[in-house]
Design goal:
Helices cover 72% and strands 0% of the residues. It is mostly helical. Helix 3 runs antiparallel to helix 6 and helix 3 packs parallel to helix 7.
Amino acid sequence: MSYQNRLNIKSIYDLATIKEREDGRLWYPQALRIARGLAARYYVSLECSAGVLAALSPRNKWARNCTDCEAMLSLFKADPESAAAYKACTFGANKKKALRILTENPIKSERVLEILSGPKLKEFYSCIMGIPEICIDGHAFSLWDGGRITLAKIPSIGIKLRREIKNDYASVATDLNIRGSELQAITWVTWRRIHNVV
């Protein structure tokens, strides 16, 4: 673990306003409530709705991510082919993962994680579901690294680097007596404000 990287994370946490700390603390529980609401509305399992949310998340703003998830659930219930034709604001491969999860509803978390396959997607799904995890995306890497890096220029985060980043987040979270997912969400909310990311 790098002292400087942990310091980078802690410095962003220290810049968080009271509201940002509350917003970050509640971010994943609110995402879980959204997933529960969608599951109830469209008669799918919670694992299914949360899995579709996670699958559609890459390069997708959260509000649109939720809109895309609801559209996919609604369309799939009415006509699976129309769901396949829907233009979600993410990569085609991610939409295919969402469709696979929908096809296998009701579905268990183990299978959702298998379909999501990528580490960031699996981490995001786990955080939504309240499973202890830390989601390492491009923003988490940037603030850990100490400088703003555009998402297109984020290096590949391999197994060893991902483990190092997670360990640093976990260490800072332990010092702050909060969950790692809360720290990641709080710093993400704060990072967005500092860098005017919408």
